[in-house]
Specification:
By secondary structure, the protein is of the alpha/beta class. It contains seven helices and five strands; from the N terminus they run βββααβααβααα. It has a five-stranded mixed β-sheet.
Length: 205
């Protein structure tokens, strides 16, 4: 029987989509198994890529109903995408053991009426909307979720991995070379947060 190798997903989320990198193997020398862009806004729902912007001009009851519809479809798309990655890993004798997700500032949002009355809050709420979808997708797949604020990623990563922040950034770049382009900030950040999810799995054992 083939040996099962541990793997972790890392996600950097945008409005309507997420960059996902799968890292596998030892936390000391992981390898990138997969790089993927997943769509988490339903193209059949106009405005679903920026749902709070689309809801802003609507009468409040219609805005709330529209956002609820978008939330249902987005969470379904995110859940199906994560489950597909987990299934693909299993077929290659890899076990998904964690999911790392980059978070926003963590600022608490007010009630929906206040959000829709503020353009700045609309932007914040949209980021949180799609990040929450990915968090729930990881949990629904039975994966321990590691959430890290993006502004803290390299400092926390350097501390946990016992590397300097500069060395960690260099390693994140090097890990992507076998994959070829695109290997942008999206993939590098997703790689680091996946790496930390892999480390957290080993430290919990």
């Amino acid at each position: 029987m083939a040996t099962t190798v541990a793997a972790a997903l890392g996600c950097r989320v945008h409005s309507g989509w997420a960059a996902v990198v799968v890292l596998a193997g030892s936390p000391h020398s992981p390898q990138v198994m997969e790089r993927r862009r997943i769509e988490i806004a339903d193209p059949r729902i106009p405005g679903s890529k920026q749902p709070f912007h689309a809801a802003e001009p609507l009468q409040f009851a219609k805005a709330a109903a529209f956002l609820e519809r978008c939330e249902t479809s987005t969470r379904k798309l995110a859940r199906e995408a994560v489950q597909d990655i987990v299934k693909r890993l299993h077929s290659r004798h890899h076990e998904a053991v964690g999911c790392g997700i980059l978070l926003g500032s963590g600022r608490a949002l007010p009630e929906l009426k206040s959000i829709l009355a503020s353009h700045a809050l609309i932007h914040t709420a949209e980021g949180e909307f799609f990040r929450q979808a990915m968090l729930h997708a990881g949990e629904d797949a039975g994966l321990p979720v590691t959430g890290i604020k993006e502004r803290e990623l390299y400092d926390r990563g350097a501390q946990q991995l016992r590397l300097s922040a500069d060395e960690l950034q260099r390693r994140a770049t090097e890990l992507g070379k076998p994959m070829g382009p695109p290997w942008t900030q999206d993939q590098k950040c997703a790689t680091v947060v996946a790496w930390l999810a892999l480390v957290n799995h080993r430290s919990d054992r």
